[in-house]
Inverse folding.
């Protein structure tokens, strides 16, 4: 039984980057042997075990064979006879198909170190084209390492085009797509993720509403959002802005989390109104800010203003007036009205009137 460190931990160490997660592969062992040594099995689909002391995950070396559609359409074979090279061969990119033994010796059967040095994202084997999820993964790695000069190898991009044209991307679940999209949007160069999806035809399959509108201006906005370390809802809202009515269907189809959906829809519906905040009457301001739910979710207004500023390419004209009005609304205290005997609908009406007066007094 031999244990090897594999994948991202090896890759990032060679790149001089921090290593956070470590994956281990066990060669020459069976599931029964692992359990006899105290390793605890996890999951039903893969031969993966938790170390009895550290809790790290250790996977038995395995091979895979395509037997259905999508990224889940594979059968796996794990046995003591599977070699390390066979296990590494099923991985997506050469830079992820390297291993280290217990002495730190590099095992690199597919020239991943060479591709690291040449800054190339290259597939390991033709079987790459059997897994549609790899289209999203490669695009995400391109976004992660673009600042280091990495690009997708032309033959790999061609396989990604074939996958996109095959219809296999449609077999990916909404949850799996969103997981990859959301992770990619939080990389250092998220615009590269969309660029790669566009280049291989995957964007038209996954977000067809966006594909005709993707271009340098949207890419620059997304790049600035990343440079400013904006959170995911801001990046998602900026990506979809200007699509109009398709924003909601896109969010629903991909099962986007509520806060990302809310901000994208608010930006689409109210950006123009918010730009005129300085000229809005108190009632219009209160109504607008109630759409943002500023009393319960004040951070939503700040996220909206961050996205609006990115799209404006400079200071957002309505920002200070909106913040001023929001502070006035938030400062209204219900307790004096309750003490006066207001309750139920009458209390709600009185609070609304008080907020209108408070916002009007800030002019």
């Amino acid at each position: 039984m031999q244990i090897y460190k594999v994948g991202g931990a090896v890759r990032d160490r060679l790149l001089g980057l921090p290593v956070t997660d470590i994956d281990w592969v066990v060669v020459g062992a069976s599931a029964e042997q692992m359990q006899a040594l105290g390793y605890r099995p996890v999951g039903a689909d893969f031969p993966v075990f938790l170390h009895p002391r550290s809790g790290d995950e250790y996977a038995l070396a395995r091979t895979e064979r395509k037997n259905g559609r999508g990224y889940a359409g594979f059968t796996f074979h794990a046995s003591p006879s599977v070699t390390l090279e066979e296990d590494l061969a099923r991985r997506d990119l050469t830079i992820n198909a390297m291993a280290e033994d217990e002495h730190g010796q590099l095992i690199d059967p597919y020239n991943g170190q060479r591709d690291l040095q040449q800054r190339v994202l290259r597939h390991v084997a033709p079987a790459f084209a059997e897994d549609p999820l790899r289209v999203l993964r490669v695009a995400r790695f391109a976004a992660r390492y673009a600042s280091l000069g990495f690009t997708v190898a032309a033959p790999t991009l061609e396989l990604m085009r074939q996958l996109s044209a095959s219809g296999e991307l449609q077999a990916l679940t909404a949850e799996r797509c969103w997981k990859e999209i959301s992770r990619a949007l939080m990389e250092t160069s998220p615009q590269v993720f969309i660029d790669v999806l566009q280049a291989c035809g995957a964007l038209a399959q996954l977000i067809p509403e966006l594909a005709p509108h993707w271009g340098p201006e949207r890419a620059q906005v997304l790049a600035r959002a990343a440079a400013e370390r904006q959170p995911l809802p801001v990046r998602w809202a900026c990506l979809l802005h200007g699509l109009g009515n398709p924003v909601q269907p896109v969010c629903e189809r991909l099962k986007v989390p509520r806060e990302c959906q809310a901000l994208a829809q608010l930006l689409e519906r109210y950006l123009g109104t918010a730009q005129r905040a300085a000229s809005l009457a108190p009632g219009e301001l209160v109504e607008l800010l109630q759409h943002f739910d500023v009393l319960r979710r004040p951070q939503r207004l700040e996220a909206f203003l961050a996205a609006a500023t990115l799209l404006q390419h400079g200071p957002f004209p309505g920002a200070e007036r909106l913040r001023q009005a929001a502070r006035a609304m938030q400062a209204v205290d219900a307790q004096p009205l309750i003490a006066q005997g207001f309750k139920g609908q009458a209390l709600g009406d009185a609070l609304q009137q008080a907020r209108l007066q408070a916002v009007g007094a800030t002019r």
